[in-house]
């Protein structure tokens, strides 16, 4: 006999977020837990707050990210799009392998590789930073 759970949705790990504005050239938002439909609103709101007084660079650090769904992916695209409009470059740091795979499969990596405004970039200046966190 197979018994299926009656829960309609698995419980999400709460989203954790910390904002560091100590560097005037780059605002850092550390994101942890689950970035999903039920948890993505606060990150999107924080991105909008940061971009209201746009820094040259917005860094999203995913060191502690456990899960992302399409809504979370949409927040990343939203941050890129809004950054493009106000002159802020988006950088992703400490991207876990699962997120890197999702970004590649959905074409978001290519979107994030586009230069800000019209400045030219080389492949070595890719906006997606890997686990080393180096720019």
Explain what you see.
It is a single chain. This protein is an alpha/beta fold and 135 residues long. It has a single domain, classed as Transcription Regulator spoIIAA (2-Layer Sandwich). It is built from four helices and four strands, in the order E-E-H-E-H-E-H-H.
Distance between the termini: 54 Å
* Largest beta sheet: strand ordering: 1-2-3-4
Poorly predicted parts: 120-135
The CATH class: Alpha Beta
How much helix is in the residues?
Answer: 25-40%
Strand content: 25-35%
What is the CATH topology assignment? Answer: Transcription Regulator spoIIAA
Number of helices: 4
Specify the CATH homologous superfamily. STAS domain
Brief write-up:
The protein is α/β, with parallel strands linked by helices.
Helix/strand layout:
Layout: E1 16-23, E2 26-35, H1 41-52, E3 57-68, H2 70-86, E4 89-93, H3 97-106, H4 108-112
Parallel strand pairs: 2-3, 3-4
Antiparallel strand pairs: 1-2
Helix pairs in contact: 1-2
Keyword list:
four-stranded mixed sheet; globular; Transcription Regulator spoIIAA
């Amino acid at each position: 006999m197979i018994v299926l759970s009656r829960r309609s949705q698995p419980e999400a790990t709460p989203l954790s977020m910390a904002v560091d504005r100590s560097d005037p050239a780059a605002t850092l938002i550390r994101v942890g837990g689950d970035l999903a439909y039920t948890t993505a609103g606060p990150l999107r709101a924080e991105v909008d707050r940061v971009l209201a007084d746009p820094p040259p660079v917005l860094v999203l650090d995913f060191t502690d990210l456990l899960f992302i769904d399409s809504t979370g992916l949409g927040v990343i695209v939203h941050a890129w799009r809004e950054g493009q409009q106000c002159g802020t470059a988006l950088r992703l740091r400490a991207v876990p392998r699962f997120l890197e795979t999702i970004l590649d499969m959905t074409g978001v990596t290519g979107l994030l590789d586009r230069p800000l405004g019209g400045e030219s970039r080389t492949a070595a200046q890719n906006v997606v930073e890997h686990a080393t966190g180096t720019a």
